[in-house]
Specification:
The protein is of the alpha+beta class. 15% of the residues lie in helices and 33% in strands. It folds into two domains: 14-47 and 148-230, Thrombin, subunit H; 50-146 and 231-245, Thrombin, subunit H.
């Protein structure tokens, strides 16, 4: 039976429109006449380690049946801060965030690092409107590779676009990339870019870049890219939540009371 959710089927769907960088990048020449192979390779190398896979389990109270459900988490997201803050699609966590506030009872999540290691992550906050979540490391960790966040970046119709994703661990956890163009721009009520290279599942939560390598936004659904400027409030909230959750700093032993560590 052909399982649409199998690793092989997922790979086939992605490769059907995608090039692996740099091995198949030459085949993408007709997809974007303006972006050279050197440009795409540079963008890819600079940002691929900021796109990480997530695995684990999430338990939540279902708002419809009032029972606790357990869902498997799988998919990739984008590290947007060196502290490890990571934007992930709710669907990758097994959550239907569009139903409203989700009562999460328990989560056991791990980010798979490019080095092959893992790090425990927690759900810091969710946005039902955008159906996105922001994760953070359970414990302070070494600086993460993060995309360069700039809320002022914008683009116009037909501008070049470059999306970076990652296949799951069954496919070697390897990075993938896809060049294309912006097919439409919606400025109100939010700045949203539409492109037919953006899929529903495999691209949700991953970054897209302009031809000069700047982060334009995060993919949030089929053909849909939300501009970074529209996500700034969400990122600010996440940073505030992370700061409140951080353990208080203590002064070194023997330091005068009130002294800063």
């Amino acid at each position: 039976m052909n399982n649409r959710n199998s690793p092989r089927a997922a790979l086939a769907r992605f490769i059907g429109r995608t090039c692996l960088v740099p091995a198949l990048l030459l085949a993408a020449g007709n997809a974007s006449a303006e972006m050279s192979q050197a440009t795409m390779t540079a963008i890819f190398k600079a940002n691929k380690d900021a796109v990480l896979n997530i695995t684990g389990l999430v338990k939540f109270m279902c708002p419809h049946c009032s029972k606790i459900h357990e869902r498997e988490a799988h998919g990739c997201g984008t590290v947007v801060d060196a502290s490890g803050l990571m934007i992930v699609a709710g669907s990758h966590l097994g959550l239907q965030l569009g139903d409203g506030k989700v009562d999460i009872r328990e989560s056991h999540l791990k980010a798979l690092l490019p080095t092959g290691g893992e790090i425990a992550m927690k759900i810091l906050l969710t946005d039902p409107d955008l159906e996105l979540a922001i994760l953070a490391p359970e414990q302070p960790a070494a600086p993460f590779k993060a995309v360069v966040w700039d809320p002022a970046v914008q683009a116009d119709l037909l501008a070049d676009l470059f999306v970076i994703g990652r296949l799951d661990k069954n496919m070697g956890n390897q990075s993938v990339a896809e060049p294309g163009n912006i097919n439409a721009v919606e400025r109100k009520p939010r700045t949203v870019y539409l492109s037919n290279i953006i899929g529903r599942d495999e691209h949700a939560g991953v970054p897209a870049f302009t031809a000069d390598g700047r982060l334009l936004g995060i993919c949030i659904g089929e053909q849909t890219l939300m501009a970074t400027g529209e996500l700034q409030d969400l990122l600010d909230q996440a940073r505030q939540a992370a700061a409140k959750a951080a353990p208080p700093k203590t002064a070194p032993a023997g330091a005068p009371e009130g002294a800063k560590p």
